[in-house]
Amino acid sequence: MTSKVADASGEDAFLPDPARDTIENPRQVPLRLQYSWGSGALGIAILMNSIGGLILFYMVSVLQIGPALAGTLIFVSKLLGVVTDPVVGTWSDRLRTTGSRRRPFLLWGSFACAGSFIMIFTTPMFASEILRASYVFGALLIYTCGYALFNVPYMSMPAEMTDSYHERSAIHGVRMMYVAIASLVVGTISPIALEALGRTSQFSYTVIGLCGGAIIFGATMIAYLGTRRARFTASQVERPKILSEVGHVFSNRHFIRLLGVKATQLIGVASSQAAAMFFLLNVLQRDLTILAPAAVVGTLVQLASAPLLVRLSRKIGKSQTYIVGGCFYLLAVLSWYFASPTEPLIFYVLRMAVVSFGACANVIMAMSMLTDIISFDALRTGVRREGVYTAFYSFTEKFTFAVGPLIVGIALSAAGFDKTLPPEAMRTPEIRQALLLGVCYIPGFLSIAAITLLAGYKLKQEDVS
Description:
Layout (H helix, E strand, L loop, with lengths): L2 E4 L5 E4 L2 H7 L6 H32 L4 H13 L1 H14 L8 H18 L8 H33 L3 H33 L4 H25 L15 H8 L3 H30 L8 H26 L1 H17 L10 H37 L4 H29 L14 H26 L11
Antiparallel strand pairs: 1-2
Helix pairs in contact: 2-3, 2-6, 2-7, 2-8, 2-10, 3-6, 3-14, 4-6, 4-14, 5-6, 5-8, 6-13, 6-14, 7-8, 7-11, 7-13, 10-13, 10-14, 10-15, 11-12, 11-13, 12-13, 12-15, 14-15
C-alpha cells in the first residue's frame, strides 16, 4: 500500500506502507527537515508562553488596567480566532500553488507574530486607561491573526510529511525539544530581566518585547526556509463546500474527544500561567529569580522526557501515555494548596519539574493523535483536511488561553486586588484563595476531567494503516 504525495520540487513521490515502518523503521522525514520544521515551535512557544505568563501581570501592574477589564480584553481578543482559524485552515487546504500550500502562510505569519509581540510589550503609557487598554487590545487582535496565519498551516504539515504512525510522534518529539528550549528562554531571561530592570517598569517589557520579537522572527523564518524540500499534498480539484467541511470535522468522534481533552486541560494550564507571577509574589513571597532554576530543571526534564515518552507510546499506546503525563500534572498542581513562604526552594523546583513532564506528554501525544485523526479521515473519505482540523485545534488552544486570564482577572477583582499597589503588597486570605483558584483548584479539577475523557479515546494504529 502506498500513498501518492509530492515533494517541494513538484515531483511525485511514494511513501512506504506504514505497517512496514514498524519492521524496517525507515525514516520518511530526514532529521535535518524535522529540526528545521521544529524550529517554528521555538518562536511560537516563546510567543505563546511569554504572553500567557506575562500579559495579565503586565496589563494590571504596568499598564494599570483593572484586572477584570484586562482579563476581559484578553478573552475577547482571542474570540477573533473563531473567524481567523477556520478561514486560514480552509484557505491553506484550498490554496493552488506550484509548491507547498502551507509554506506561504509561514512567511506571512512570521512577520505578524513578531510584530504583534513587539507591539504588545511596547504599549505607550497614555494618560488615559482607555487609550492604554485600546492600544494593547489592538495589538492582541493582531497577535491572534498572526498566530493563526503561522500556526494553523504549520501544524498541518506533519500529516503531509509522513504516513508513519510512530514517526509522527518522533516529529512532535523534536518539536517538543524546541518548546522546552523556549520554556528555558522565557523562564530564565524574562524573570532575571524583570528583577534587574524593574518588574513593574515599562522599560523592562520593552526590552523583552524587542528581544523576544527578534527571536520569534528568526525561529519562524528558519521553519519557512528549512521546509522547502518537505513533502506535501496538493489541493483536490473538487472540494466540499466550507460549511460541509466544518460539519464533517465535528462529526468525527475521535476529534471531538481530543478537543474535549485539550480544552479541559488547557483551561487549567492557562489559569495557572495567568496566576503564576502573582502567586509567586503574594503567596510564596519570593522574587521572580526563583523562576530561573525551575526553568532550567524543567527544560532538562522535557528534553530527557521527549524520547522516553515516544518510546513509551510504542509500548502502551498514545492515549495511555497521555494519561500517564496527565496524572503527574494533576499531582503537581494539587500540591500548590500546601505551598507556603517557609517551604524550601527545592519544593518549587520539584513541582515545576513534574509539571514539565506532564506538559511534555500533553504536547507530544496530543499532536501525534491529531495527525492520526487527520490521516484516518483522509483514508476513509479521500479528502485531505489538514487545515480545517488544525484550525479548530488551534482555536481551542487560543480560546482556552483566553479563558484562564479572564477567570483569574475576575477572581482577583472580586478578592479586592488594587492595581495601584505593588502586586506583593496585597497578601490577604482572599487574594490567596483567588490565586489558588488559578494554580490549584481549576487545573486540578479539569485534569481529572481530561484524564476521564482520554480513557475513552479508541483510535489505534491499525485504524490509520
